[in-house]
Amino acid sequence: AADISVIVPLYGRFDFLRHQLAQFADDVDFGRVDLIYVVDDPDIVSETIALAARYQALFGIPFRILSYGENRGFAGANNIGVRHAIGETVVLLISDVIPQAPGWISTLTNALRTLPDAGIVAPLLLFGDGSVQHAGMYPRTDAALPGFLLNTHRGMGFVWSGDTQPFEAPMLTAACIAMRKQDYDEVGGFDEGYLIGDFEDSDLCLALRKRGRRLWMVPEARLWHLERQSQNLGNVVGQRQLITLFNGWRFQQKIRRGVLTDPRGVELAG
Questions:
Q1: Hey, what's the torsion of the CAs at 53, 55, 59, 60, to 10 degrees?
Q2: What residues pair up with 39 in beta bridges, in sequence order?
Q3: DSSP 8-state assignment for residue 227
Q4: What are the distances in angstroms from CA 104 to CA 90, 99, 169?
Q5: What is the pLDDT of residue 197?
Q6: Is residue 16 within 8 Å of residue 44, measured between CB atoms?
Q7: Are 259 and 187 spatial neighbours (Cβ–Cβ below 8 Å)?
Q8: What does the pLDDT read at residue 229?
Q9: Are 150 and 140 in contact (CB under 8 A)?
């Protein structure tokens, strides 16, 4: 029986599914994985199912497709996926993150089981040129935006200079994370009040830290992040900035009310 559920929301583009399946097919870990593609876009349901039928026959990886006739956003899609997950451990993955090598799920789940107080673990995510896309999220403030707490990705665009030793981070990106389903449920999953997939992962991380869980980067596990363009709004940058500001304000209010741990607090052990 599957003890790990891997949940991948699809919105706009569905063609990455075949690239992921091509990698998953060579990975023995997927013999114990409950793989769920959550179609969060009514416009692509029929094409996704047609593509899935073709590639399932080719790669032989069992998976499920969930759809529900509406767009619930990143948070809503993951919440629905986790609700239907069989595994006690859930791996949340976006569709343009592609494993570099088999065994990454075992590496992450072993880390989740053995690292002190681990609530969420995340791999090192690299751009196609080998530079860092994600190695932990850190809080930042901007003098031009008093009262807003924003996120920054340290080392983004630079060559990874660390080793394979796990280290603690204040927050992690949900492009690829592993955690216990019970922990996800206890904090109520992703907060669906943020707009367009922004800050939900920071929020989830700080909600878990509030409960004494720790967040670990596990650089031994490495995946490519292809930086998809499909989620661009297609309208003015100004509107995107306003949405980010709204989300940043909402995030800061929850920290002020004590619902979330303040990420600017105690320095974490490296």
A1: -10
A2: 10, 67
A3: -
A4: 14, 7, 19
A5: 67
A6: no
A7: no
A8: 43
A9: yes
